[in-house]
Specification:
Helices cover 31% and strands 25% of the residues. The protein is α/β, with parallel strands linked by helices. Strand 12 and strand 13 form a beta hairpin.
Length: 387
């Protein structure tokens, strides 16, 4: 079996997501499994070069994971013709210039979401990549989580009959940082640094809804900033300028209504940090990050509302777990393998930069809906918009 290397410039691996999900659990995991098998019988072996601004962190990560190559000079990395893929997991407001430089260098582009913090610049990058003829994509990891894959399989099998509604809850309590360290970086709570839960999570909800249930046709959003003061990584207090909670309602094609609440100020009383319930005429399901449970119509209990007597129905007992009848790999790794196959042998790939732009579009319209206190239609998006 022949093997060939593919050089990957990985910018932003000193951050939590770039390091854990993309470098360790995706690119290095592909190396550890012996590479990525291709359809011609050969194996594609990722060869990463780490890029960042912090020399000490890069040296430490490279040493811990036996990575030979790292640099603080992005231009030097882009100049190497052997490194054909550029990946970016930097802060959102630092991404556009680096991606544009990578496109100009002829690199294939794979990026975390949101690609940028505004639709105009996101579409500009999508147009540049398309014109340059490079392969391009954006991370849409939640589609490849075990719970969501089980849910999609139920939809495709017709389990629900006609889908009526979708209700989602995402979030957890992120500590302010004074008495306990915060679980998220401080820039997430500064609007001027690209922070905010609407720009973050509405990008997720766009691809989840579009690819699972039907295209988003309109949005109504109420956002808020619940925690006004937090403490940063140096234990210094700062003013929160970004939204940390969002209540979104989405009208989907086919008459489906979706409601998704997102917050870093929720305390969790559910099985997972994310839960989505889908109700249909023939059955319902509740999916999380990993688990999925169902209740068909013929197993649905018949409650009668009577607040004067104790409830006798144990509602959770009437749900059945969808079994893990296949091996579910890490969702980030699954999408990485898809993108690398797309680059190496033109494998199928539905997650180009225009798909990423749709997420930014929904976030912008969600913010507009909140500030104008009204429903906003979501128009079809093309590369030419705003050109």
């Amino acid at each position: 079996m022949s093997a060939r290397e593919i050089g990957i410039i990985m910018n932003g691996v000193t951050g939590r997501m770039g390091l854990n999900q993309h470098l360790v659990r995706s690119v290095l995991a592909i190396r550890q499994q012996g590479g990525l098998p291709l359809s011609d019988g050969s194996v594609l072996m990722p060869n990463p070069i780490l890029v960042g601004r912090n020399t000490e962190k890069l040296k430490q990560i490279a040493a811990e994971h036996n990575i030979a190559r790292w640099t603080t000079d992005l231009n030097t990395a882009l100049a190497n013709p052997a490194d054909t893929v550029y990946f970016d997991a930097q802060l959102t407001n630092q991404r556009a210039a680096a991606v544009e430089a990578a496109i100009a260098a002829g690199k294939h582009i794979y990026c975390e979401k949101p690609l940028t913090a505004d639709l105009a610049s996101t579409l500009r990058l999508a147009r540049l990549a398309t014109t340059a003829g490079v392969k391009h994509g954006v991370v849409q990891d939640k589609l490849y989580l075990p719970g969501m894959r089980k849910l999609k399989r139920l939809i495709d099998s017709g389990f629900f009959g006609r889908i009526l509604s979708v209700r989602g809850e995402f979030g957890y309590w992120v500590f302010e940082g004074d008495k306990q360290p915060a679980q998220r970086p401080s820039w997430n709570y500064r609007k001027q640094d690209g922070g905010g839960i609407i720009i973050d999570m509405f990008c997720h909800w766009r691809y989840v809804l579009d690819h699972t249930f039907g295209n988003v046709k309109s949005v109504s959003c109420l956002g808020s900033t619940e925690i006004l003061k937090r403490w940063d990584e140096q234990s210094k207090p700062y003013e929160v300028t970004a939204d940390d909670t969002a209540y979104g309602t989405f009208a989907l094609e086919g008459g489906i209504t979706a409601q998704i609440n997102s917050s870093w100020c929720f305390r969790v009383y559910r099985d997972e940090l994310f839960s989505m319930q889908v109700d249909g005429t023939l059955g319902s399901a509740v999916a999380g990050l990993r688990e999925c449970r169902v209740q068909p119509a013929d197993k649905t209990p018949r409650p009668v509302w009577n607040p004067d007597v104790p409830n006798t129905i144990r509602f959770r007992d009437d749900w059945t777990e969808v079994p893990n009848d296949t091996d579910f790999d890490n969702g980030f790794k699954v999408q990485w393998e898809m993108f690398l196959r797309h680059v190496a042998e033109d494998g199928p790939w539905p997650h180009g930069l225009l798909e990423g732009a749709k997420g930014v579009q929904l976030a912008e319209l969600g913010l507009k809906s909140w500030h104008e206190r009204r429903w906003i239609d979501v128009p079809a998006l093309t590369l030419e918009q705003g050109a």
